[in-house]
Design goal:
Helices cover 40% and strands 14% of the residues. It contains 17 helices and 13 strands. It binds beta-D-glucopyranose. Beta-D-glucopyranose binds next to loops.
Amino acid sequence: MSASSAALRFPKDFHWGYATASAQVEGSIDQDGRAPSIWDTFSRLPNKTLDGTDTTVTTDTYVQWRGDIELMKSYGVNSHRLSLSWSRIIPLGGKDDPVNQAGIDWYREYLKALVDAGIVSHLTLFHWDLPQALEDRYKGFLSRDIVADFERYARVCFESFGDLVRDWFTINEPNVFSMMGYLFGSHAPGRTSNREKSAEGDSQREPFLVGHNLLLCHASAVKSYREEFKQKQGGQIGLVVNMLWGEPLDDSAENLTAADEFMAQSSGWFIEPVVFGDYPPSSRKIFEGHLPKFSAEDSALVKGSCDFLGINHYSTFYIKRRTTPAEPGVPWTILHPAVELGIHDKHGNEIGPVGGVNFVRIVPWGFGKLLDWTWKKYQLPIYITENGAVCPNENDIPFPDVLDDHFRIEYLTKYADQVAMAIQRGVPVKSHLMWALTDNFEWQEGHTARFGVTYIDYEDDCKRYPKKSAAVMKEYYRSRIE
Ligand code: BGC
């Protein structure tokens, strides 16, 4: 860390810590009345995860959660982001389906223990694990029926946990959920036009429809929170969007416009409706006929439905105008078919060192630009809800050498510096929640992508071992929070 890093400061009320998500850590998928989620079903199908692992055990947090709170205390954090499993709370998911008291009791115990430990919870209602029953009943987020069911689920959560939680997040990364689940079919529910992967799906249409219904779910939950709970509980509520930074490859007019359009679609697809009440004008043009229209009533419901913006940020790409037709199936085409994402600058230099997953490179300056751009454009307080990296070949490094995670340390400290510098410039960044508390079930990567500041020994009862980064970040924040 440079001398200038040591001089950086964070305000007294700054929230920092680590994040998790229910399907990625809990396991115990048939305990105490919990019913299956779409990720239980999907991850069990052949060849859906890289190493054949599924959601059955993951990091066994349903059993080992007390130890995790002790771990967090030892890491010095003041916050933790976690998500609720909808099918633990309402096993069949629907608005007239029974609530599972055992599920509520388990989360209450966990959330109370966090309060007792002096750790603030940032609670996400939906981090991708939809009750399977709703997928079976009406195809989940493809149907508008989901809106009333989500709204009731949210209300049950506000009622049950609102005395323990002030910072609510409705939906994690609607952009990634729609793309991965309905364009590529590589996440649950696995729908795609690629018939080698799935018998059903329409990659051109379904991601946009699902995205639209996700926005209506989010906005209905917010409405109910604001009307029935906000005043007495004194909390706030927002949405979490995955945001890349797209840096124009050069300052030619065509690449500047390409980068603008890329940011409008990749981030604005969900942020513009919640801020301005409609999809970005450039996306409306590009995806003509695919993006659903908001009725006046829906637009009014969605507009202004965030008290703050949650940002999951991992990396930066160079953007240029595409000169050849987009290959169908290339991950980023839905983010904009007429742009190309690159990792080399105009002189051929790589944008930053790459870690163990190809979508994360260390590009701290891109994060700084993203924070400035987001604040300027959307004027909402910002919560960084995820940010993290995997070390090169991390899954192949033998224990205990793997605990010396200097690539992650470089990434996290440099990204934290960017947060402090943005705050100095007047950008209201309120939290830095890093991904992740422990190695976990990384969706289609199974257990192979280790994002944790804690190593999990999957062969030995999911024993936890702190990596060096946990101690470095503890000292980093201890010495910089006012
Ligand atoms: C998701 C996490 C995921 C992480 C790393 C984010 O898109 O919200 O659930 O584990 O990225 O891949």
